[in-house]
Design a protein that fits this description.
By secondary structure, this protein is of the alpha/beta class. Helix content is 24%, strand content 26%. The chain has eight helices and 21 strands. The strands form six sheets. The chain has an eight-stranded mixed beta sheet. The protein has a three-stranded antiparallel beta sheet with strand order 1-2-3, with no helix packed on it. It is globular and about 65 Å long. It starts with 8 loop residues before the first strand and ends with a strand.
């Protein structure tokens, strides 16, 4: 499969390349790859050897992304990639994110669109490992999806440069972006990322009118302090108290062995966050106590009931031609988008 001309790359001295796809700004010398492992320099020329390389192709519920306010109860064709520009020690997809050698296959954009149509999917998700490091493929596939009437779902760590973030988000219909901590030091020292770049990406998604949801994996001893979770909630509420925030329980994986997140502590954090944000959800725990369901903000009627990844849409209706749903009980607007 032919590689496209790489974007976000400029020449550097001694046949080097400077990549601006993400805030690392890698200077890639001949024969080497950037920190993401998938953007390479071959004899002074930028190459994308993993363009269209898919490590996973699966049907998921949108709730698994997690997206709770976009087409609840529907399935999505999920594409997984390889490589990542972070080094999270607790990564749950480390077999494909922390190596460029994961098993997979090359799929042209046309084959992805054909698979979505054959499966009757109204949306494609770019997910699992970090899709942003494959920015060129995302731009091509997202544009083709829109031409076919298919929506684009981005699941990302948000660690992107401003140009790439703008370009990719402009073709995105719904996104879940990780806010892994609210400490610049944690991002730099533990995760190998840049907090300000993530915050800018979240701001850009909100400004573009994308259906935006945010996820924070609560890791004991890393980001579970009350002050830090409050800072995350305050940031999101400053953009809009309507932004859904998913607080997810961590379990030991990859090379991190802190104890699993205490479900009661997660519920307490979610309860506290609901003083700032209207929609706070919990994930990866068995006792959600209503923190999976979506109620009407005006009358309290249940709009969507969830159990795990199963969603029962029971309290919303949509007027002809409208993009958002209204509450079936009181007729007021809901946050659910079609």
């Amino acid at each position: 499969m032919a590689e496209p001309q790489p974007r976000y790359v400029t020449p550097a001295p001694n046949r080097g390349l400077r990549c601006s796809l993400c805030p690392h700004g890698c200077r890639i010398t001949p024969g080497r790859a950037g920190l993401c492992r998938v953007r390479r320099n071959q004899d002074g020329e930028a190459r994308l050897p993993y363009y269209g390389y898919i490590t996973a192709l699966a049907e998921d519920p949108l709730e698994k992304k997690p997206l709770y306010h976009f087409r609840p109860g529907e399935g999505v064709l999920s594409l997984g990639f390889t490589g990542c520009n972070l080094r999270c020690p607790f990564c749950q997809n480390w077999r494909i994110s922390q190596s460029a050698g994961a098993p997979g296959r090359y799929m042209p954009v046309e084959a992805v669109i054909a698979a979505a149509k054959a499966g009757g999917f109204r949306q494609i998700a770019y997910t699992y490992s970090e899709p942003l490091v494959h920015g060129e493929f995302l731009l091509d596939c997202m544009a083709a999806a829109h031409e076919s009437g298919i929506a684009n779902v981005l699941v990302s760590n948000g660690c992107a440069g401003p140009d790439a973030a703008r370009d990719i988000l402009s073709l995105t219909d719904a996104a879940n972006i990780d806010l892994k901590a609210f400490s610049p030091e944690t991002y730099a020292r533990v995760l190998g990322g840049d907090l300000n770049a993530v915050l800018d990406c979240i701001r850009a998604a909100r400004a573009l009118g994308i259906l935006l949801e945010v996820t924070t994996l609560i890791v004991p001893g890393l980001n579970d302090g009350e002050a830090e979770t409050a800072a995350c909630a305050d940031f999101l509420a400053g953009l809009s108290p309507e932004i859904p925030w998913h607080l997810s329980a961590y379990h030991p994986d990859y090379c991190h062995n802190a104890p699993p997140t205490d479900p009661q502590a997660l519920l307490k954090a979610a309860q506290s966050a609901r003083r700032r944000l209207r929609y706070v959800y919990t994930g990866n725990i068995p006792c959600s106590r209503g923190f999976e369901d979506t109620p009407c903000a005006f009358c309290g009627a249940l709009l969507v009931r969830r159990r795990g990844f199963r969603a029962a849409v029971q309290g919303i209706r949509r007027e002809a031609g409208a993009k958002n749903y209204v509450c079936a009980a009181c007729g007021r607007p809901t946050p659910i988008r079609s």
